[in-house]
Amino acid sequence: MADITDIKTILYTEKSLELKESGVLVVQTSTRMTKNKLKEIFKSYFGFTPIRVNSLRQDGKTKRFKGRLGQRSDFKKFYVKIPEGADINSLSV
């Protein structure tokens, strides 16, 4: 069973704020999350089923941390189309 703690954050970038105006929410999750699990979370915790869910898997960047090579964590990004009657402002994770 999927849990609300699998959602890491709701992204607030310039692109995601433009998408939010058209009813699309951008959610960052762990790499093990699937579309069906995410729909289940939205239905059980927020009380509505998303119209559409698109996913994107992003590999972590290789960066230098204090002179040593390091790797940022991999994550998945989901673009969730919210129904018109749903209240997006109350979604805080």
Automatic annotation (TrEMBL):
Keywords: Ribonucleoprotein, Ribosomal protein, RNA-binding, rRNA-binding. GO terms for molecular function: rRNA binding; structural constituent of ribosome. InterPro entries: Nucleotide-bd_a/b_plait_sf, Ribosomal_uL23-like, Ribosomal_uL23/eL15/eS24_sf. Coiled coil: none annotated. The keyword Ribosomal protein applies. One of its GO terms (biological process) is translation. It comes from the Bacteria. The keyword rRNA-binding applies. One of its GO terms (cellular component) is ribosome. Belongs to the universal ribosomal protein uL23 family. One of the early assembly proteins it binds 23S rRNA. One of the proteins that surrounds the polypeptide exit tunnel on the outside of the ribosome. Forms the main docking site for trigger factor binding to the ribosome. Part of the 50S ribosomal subunit. Contacts protein L29, and trigger factor when it is bound to the ribosome. This is Large ribosomal subunit protein uL23. It comes from Helicobacter muridarum.
